[in-house]
Each structure stands twice: as C-alpha cells, then as structure tokens.
Amino acid sequence: MATVNRFGWPDYVVLASVPVISLMIGLYQGLRRRKQTTEDYLMGGRDMSFLPVAFSVLASFLSAISVLGAPVEIYAFGASFWVNALSYFISVPITAHVFIPLFFKLKITSAYEYLELRFNRVIRLMGCFVFTIQMVFYMAVVFYAPALAFSHVSGLSLWVSVLAVGAACTIYTSIGGLRAVVWTDFFQVLVVISGLLALVIKGTMDVGGFGTVWEKAREGGRLNMFSFDPDPRHRHTVWSLIVGGAVTTLSVYAVNQAMVQRYLCVKNQRTAQATIYFNLPGNILTTTILTLLGLVAYAKYKDCDPLHSGKITQLDQLVPFMVLETLGVLPGLAGLFVACVFSAALSTVSSGVNALALVYLEDVVKPIYKMKKGNQMADGLASFVSKGLALFFGALTVGLAFLSSLMGRTILHITLSSFGMTGGPLLALFILAMFFPTVNSWGVGVGLISSLLFSFWLGIGTVISRPPLPILSLKTSECPITQTVINNITESVEPFVTSTIMYDVDNNMTSYSTGALESSTAAHVSRYRYTGLEIYRVSYMWYSSIAVIVGVSVALIVSCVSGGQKNPINPALIIPVWRNIQSLFGKKSKSLEITKHEARILKPYLGMVFKNFNDQ
C-alpha cells in the first residue's frame, strides 16, 4: 500500500472521545435510575420521548458495514443503489399502520410473545432462535470489518480497537439499559452524519466542486440510476431495488426485535408511528450522502484506481484510504471519520445486545423459571438477570469478532450474509401469523424451516459459485506504470464490506479499461466462464422476497394437508384489514371466534375486543 498520512494525536483524541462519551452516557442513565425496574431497563419505562427514539431507530441499522460498503458499491457499480431509498415509501407506511398497531394493542415486550399467543411456545422459541442467529454473527462482523479495514490504513491496532470499543459498548449497554442505548444512539448518529459530511465536502472541494463530480460520474457511467429490465438476474433494477428492497427493509423495520423494542418504548402508538416516519427522510438522506461519497471517490480516482495501482490491496480499504488522503492533512478530521465508523458499529451492536437480552429474558429465562419454581420471577431478580444477559451477549460479540480473524473470506461472506438470509423467513413467519387465520403451527414451523433452508442454500451457493458481476470501468491510465501496478491488475478481491454485496474483480476483469497497461496485462487476464446454477445469478435484492414466498407457500400447503387451524383464535391477533375483508363478503371464520376465558384475559388492555364479544 502506498504511503499516506497517518493518524496524529488530534485524530486519536477525537476517536477516543466517542467510546468515552458513550460510556459516560450509559453510566449516567444507569446511576440516575439505580432502582429501575425490568421494564425501565429493557423498555425505557415505555415513556421515552420521540426525538431520541427516532434517531435510535435510524442509527440501529446504519452500521459500519453500510458506511464502508455503500460508497464502494457506488464506486464499482454506479449510483443505481440510491433507488433503494425509494423502497422506504412502501415499507415505512406498512410498518406504521399494520405492524405497530398490533404490537401496541397486545402490550407485548418481545415480538416473539405474539407468536406464542398466535401459535404455541415451540414457534415462539423457533422465532427466538432465528433472531439470535441473525443478530449474533452479524454484530461480530460489524465490529471486526471496520477494525480490520482501518488497521491497514491508520496504524490502529486491530485488537486494541475491537477490545476497547467492545468493552465500552458492553458496559454502557449492560448498566444503562435501553435508555442508555437510545441516548448513545442519538449521539452516535450525529457523529456518523458529521463524519460523512466532512469527507463528502472536503473530497468535493479537492476534485473541483460538485459540477466536476457530476460530470466525471456521467462520463464514467456511474449515473445509471434507473433500469426497468424485468430480468431478476439483473443485479440492480427499479423493480429489485424498490419492490425487493421494500420486502428486505420490511423484514428489518417491522419484525426485528431491536426495532419493535423501540416502537414499544414510547408513550403511545402515534409517537411510535412518528418515529418510523422520521426514518423515511432520514434513510433517504443517509443513502444520498453515502451515494455522493461513492461518486466523489470515483471522481477522485477516476483515472488512477487505487486497487490496481497498488495503493490498496482490497476494495474494502477504499474509503479508509480516501479518508487519510483527503482528511489526513487536517488535524482531527481523519479521526472524526474513524469515529463515525465506530459510532455506526456501536449503535448497531448496542441495539442488538439490548434486544437479545430482552428476548432471552422474556422468551427463555422467565418461562423456565416459572416452570421450575411455579411462580413468576421477581422484578429485582429479572432486572439483575437482564443485565447479566446483556453483559454475556456483549462479551460474546467481542469474542466472535476475534474469531472472525481466523475465518476465511468465504466464511466471512456467509456469516455476514446470514443477516439477510434470516430476515425473509422471519418476516414470512409474522405475515403468516397476522394475515392467515387458517394456518396452523405445523404449517408455520415447516414453512419457517423450508424458507431458512432455501435462503441459506441460495446465499451460500451464490458465495461459493461466484457468479459474474457487472463492475463498471476503472482506469489506471494516469498512474505511474510500475510492476506493482501490473501485478495488482490480476489480483482477486473478495471484500466483506456489506451483507449482500460481494465483489469478484477476476470475474469481471475484461470490463476494465487499463489504458497504457492493456497490452502488458493481456496475458494475465482471461474471460471468466460461469458454470454454476442459473438461480445463483438472481439479484440479492430478491432474496428476502423469495424467502417470504417459499415460507408462506409451504406453510399454507402443510396447514391445508394437516387440517388447518382447529382451535379458536383471538381476533386481536389477526390484522383488522383481514377481518374487514371477511365481513365485506359476509363471511365469518370459525377460527376467529373468541372464548369468554380469552376475553377475560384480554379485557385490561383490549377493551374494544371485549365489548365486541359482549355485543354478539
């Protein structure tokens, strides 16, 4: 790698301030509420205000993977990914007006409580297990990936950074609970946006202004925003980015416990809906900033690609390298961007750790305690156990981040991709529970397993078979011609900067324009011939949609074969729009009848359901 500006002491000071301030916020929230109940610790007392929760929702999945990966996506494949931001116009209203009202009406704590109310305890535990797989491995790589990338360019020790940031995250999450997580998220998202804007503004100035950026992006074919090709194998189209993207984001915002927990920690349903609507412009803004950063990077390195000129060794180092070249000359600004990346990692991991602690307390520990002791767990003990669980999952995340260094790149791809592979099946599980009153637990269980198996087969098969990707032209015509440049032209790069985007430069080397080096490298470059299954070429943007279709289809078939739902179901557990459609045609499903015992249980918080029962 080429020599670039390294960190100075102002950069280290700025970087260190992020975990220190986050830790102070957590300690403050924990110490000012020493006698907090379990509900205070895990749900913020259900009275948190709009603004910090809205920022926390935005921060939770604005991970370091996104900050490092999205600009590389734009640099290599063009700005078409920005269209994915439009998918929020579909997923946000559905989340706000379909999922949030149901969760609020039931007054649940864990999203998987709903699955036991609708089906049985086995389905609840299956949902809990899938969520664990989804979050634990994702959080580990979220920590490891940015630490590895920045250790190459900043001189920071990989393990010191992982351990220090991981320890701070674990401590403030376990001590302060959800309030600490939400308020640190609020602080961290401001750091993330500040760091991104600093790099975009300084980078734009360096290349001659926004007009120059736009013109170079146009010349290089990076403004390929809208493709209406219906072929699902086309990597990015309007259909895959908006329709497929809507299903993918719905699996995050509608049914992921880290999100559900935030909706339920505010004072009322209207505030919860406002927090998710805040994320509509918020996500469009962050996606736009990341897209601009990718275009600025392309404008800066349009005629001298740093990968093939030997300045970096893999594409996931592009943003860190650009940071040190662009911001390294100004004391503290490079440190601000590194702080931005680690803030994004902290917000994701703290949200996941807190959500896992809640899920295991409510879905595993409390039921086992009641089965063994015959009574409910005391609130003081539950609060202590929840803090212990947060400490455990925080330590587990740091430990798995260390183990990530021992994995091969293919395994890292699969580990990181597991987040997307499990999101679709989980969404299918909740869609079946909410919209299909005739489906039974056998159908849902088999449907979930089938969807998971299909998703992992498709995801792992794609990673292993390495289908060709349409990487756009990158040039080295303005670089000094050295043997290092020539050697780097033929290197294969397999970064893991995003959970769904995997690059294979060898597969697409014939699309590169190497200028004066073209004749020198002809012998090294051969056209790649793909021999894998054609289904592996389907765009990753359709994975969640395919998983939902498989899960719902299998569940309906198995439920039909096994006799359907035989026991009465609470009307409160089914989405009202479905009941309205039934009543429109004068039909009444027997499975939706409510018993007096169920009405008596639900009366305290479902008065309307009880009233309807009495009126019948």
From TrEMBL:
Q: Where in the cell is it found?
A: Cell membrane
Cross-referenced InterPro entries? Na/Glc_symporter_sf (IPR038377), Na/solute_symporter (IPR001734), Na/solute_symporter_CS (IPR018212), Sodium:Solute_Symporter_SSF (IPR051163)
* Membrane topology category: Multi-pass membrane protein
Keyword annotations from UniProtKB, A to Z: Cell membrane, Glycoprotein, Ion transport, Membrane, Sodium, Sodium transport, Transmembrane, Transmembrane helix, Transport
GO cellular-component term (any): plasma membrane
Molecular function (GO) terms listed? monoatomic ion transmembrane transporter activity; symporter activity
Bilayer-crossing regions = 12-28, 49-69, 81-104, 125-150, 156-175, 182-201, 237-255, 276-299, 333-361, 381-404, 410-435, 442-464, 540-561
Q: Name one GO biological process term.
A: inorganic ion transmembrane transport
- What does the record give as the reaction this protein catalyses? iodide(out) + 2 Na(+)(out) = iodide(in) + 2 Na(+)(in)
Q: Indicate whether Ion transport appears among the record's keywords.
A: yes
- Protein family per UniProt: Belongs to the sodium:solute symporter (SSF) (TC 2.A.21) family.
Its recorded name reads Sodium-dependent multivitamin transporter
